[in-house]
């Protein structure tokens, strides 16, 4: 009997202990659920009302930090710039600014150059960072990417400096020559010589101003507003006529060939200027008694048929280091020769802008001492595609080879060449 009572007493005590433990566990669970977790501190709920909506429409990269410097919210642009990594602000100067602003409540702004992610060339990312307090505990960081703006500003400064230099040369020459004419008023032969030089400098100045106007128009206008189907044959004939006098003076023969009856879609004036610049360069940089070839063909491309117009010369050629820069404004492979031929260094820049604005491109193949081939590639006009059943386009290898217009065959192949393998029955234009 005493044993049974003892067992019952032990069971009662065990039941009471189990109940107490269960109640304590329940209370502890409730307390843990009410306690704010680390993740709950970093949700949008801690942001003041309306801030989340405002941040979502800002163009700037936005980062919100709490009192522990942890990231509460960050825009996708902030991650793309590499500002936020692992839930922390990864740029130490910005982090220090945030701490200073949290301490004294002052708004701070600074411009920084940050290493660009994913490149091993040490390229800098220019940014402007602005830090301001957001409520009593949070700090807001706004970052603007200034890289493109700085690049444009550098281009503008270089352009102004180059234009000033290029204009100064002929203007200074005209001033000196006019003084020389006045001093030599009693010497008719000297006056005639100085007047001839003045005419040359005035022509160079006129060409420079006109090409600056053309470049400005190409960059600012939309060529497709007045677009129309333009016959390639007419563009080639106009370019040849433009350079006929210079070619005749150097006894250079121009040969035009390729596929007939091709059309491109675009602004006729701009296309004529671009092709004319290519042909004029070919004539100016070719030795006397050589040939310049102009040929056109249609090529199939995934985005639609294109027309390629190649201009090939037998001139001095272009080195590999110069080929990367020849389409820059005012850049000249041989400055002395360019000035002698009246070149301004803007012709190829105009060609590049015309090609890009028409949805095409311009490429170059060249070898020093062997000549150059510039290829203007433009979208074909839709009205010209119905000629395909009459004259199938010849298939050529990608890259092509340099065009030898004198023999009607290709020069040794080069992977960079964009000319054609053959030039069928070229029309020789004296």
UniProtKB/TrEMBL annotation:
A GO molecular function term, named singly, is:
kinase activity
Q: Give the EC number.
A: 2.7.13.3
Q: GTP-binding: is it a keyword of this entry?
A: no
Basic and acidic residues bias: start-end ranges:
383-397
Region (Disordered) location: 383-430
Matching InterPro entries = BphY/WalK/GraS-like, HATPase_C_sf, HATPase_dom, His_kinase_dom, HisK_dim/P_dom, HisK_dim/P_sf, Sig_transdc_His_kin-like_C
Q: Where is the Histidine kinase domain?
A: 162-382
Kindly indicate whether the keyword Transmembrane helix belongs to this entry: yes
Catalytic reaction(s) noted: ATP + protein L-histidine = ADP + protein N-phospho-L-histidine
Q: Which residue ranges traverse the bilayer?
A: 6-26
Location of this chain's protein in the cell: Cell membrane
Which keywords does the record carry?
Kinase, Membrane, Phosphoprotein, Transferase, Transmembrane, Transmembrane helix, Two-component regulatory system
**What protein name does the entry list?**
Sensor-like histidine kinase SenX3
């Amino acid at each position: 009997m005493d044993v049974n009572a003892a067992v019952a007493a032990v069971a009662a005590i065990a039941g009471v202990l189990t109940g107490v433990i269960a109640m304590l566990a329940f209370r502890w669970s409730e307390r843990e659920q009410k306690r704010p977790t680390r993740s709950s501190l970093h949700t949008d709920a801690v942001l003041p009302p309306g801030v989340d909506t405002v941040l979502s429409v800002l163009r700037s990269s936005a980062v919100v930090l709490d009192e522990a410097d942890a990231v509460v919210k960050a825009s996708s642009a902030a991650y793309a710039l590499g500002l936020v990594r692992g839930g922390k602000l990864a740029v130490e100067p910005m982090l220090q600014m945030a701490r200073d602003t949290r301490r004294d409540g002052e708004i701070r702004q600074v411009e920084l150059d940050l290493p660009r992610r994913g490149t091993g060339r040490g390229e800098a990312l220019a940014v402007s960072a602005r830090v301001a307090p957001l409520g009593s505990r949070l700090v807001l960081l706004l970052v603007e990417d200034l890289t493109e703006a700085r690049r444009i500003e550098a281009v503008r400064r270089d352009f102004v400096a180059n234009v000033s230099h290029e204009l100064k040369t002929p203007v200074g020459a005209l001033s000196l020559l006019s003084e020389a004419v006045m001093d030599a008023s009693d010497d008719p032969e000297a006056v005639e010589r100085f007047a001839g030089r003045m005419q040359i400098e005035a022509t160079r100045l006129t060409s420079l101003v006109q090409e600056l106007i053309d470049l400005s128009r190409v960059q600012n206008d939309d060529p497709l507003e007045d677009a129309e189907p333009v016959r390639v044959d007419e563009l080639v004939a106009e370019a040849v006529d433009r350079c006929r006098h210079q070619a005749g003076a150097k006894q250079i023969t121009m040969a035009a060939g390729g596929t007939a009856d091709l059309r491109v879609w675009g602004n006729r004036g701009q296309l004529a200027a671009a092709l004319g610049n290519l042909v004029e360069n070919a004539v100016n940089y070719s030795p006397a008694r050589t040939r310049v070839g102009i040929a056109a063909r249609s090529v199939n491309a995934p985005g639609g048929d294109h027309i390629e117009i190649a201009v090939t010369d037998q001139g001095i050629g272009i080195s590999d280091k110069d080929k990367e820069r020849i389409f820059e404004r005012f850049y000249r492979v041989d400055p002395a020769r360019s000035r002698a031929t009246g070149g301004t260094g803007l012709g190829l820049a105009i060609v590049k802008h015309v090609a890009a604005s028409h949805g095409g491109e311009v490429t170059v193949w060249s070898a020093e001492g062997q000549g150059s081939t510039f290829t203007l590639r433009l979208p074909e006009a839709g009205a010209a595609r119905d000629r395909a059943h009459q004259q199938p386009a010849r298939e050529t290898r990608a890259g092509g080879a340099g065009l030898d217009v004198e023999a009607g065959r290709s020069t040794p192949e080069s992977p960079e060449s964009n000319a054609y393998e053959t030039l069928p029955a070229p029309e020789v234009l004296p």
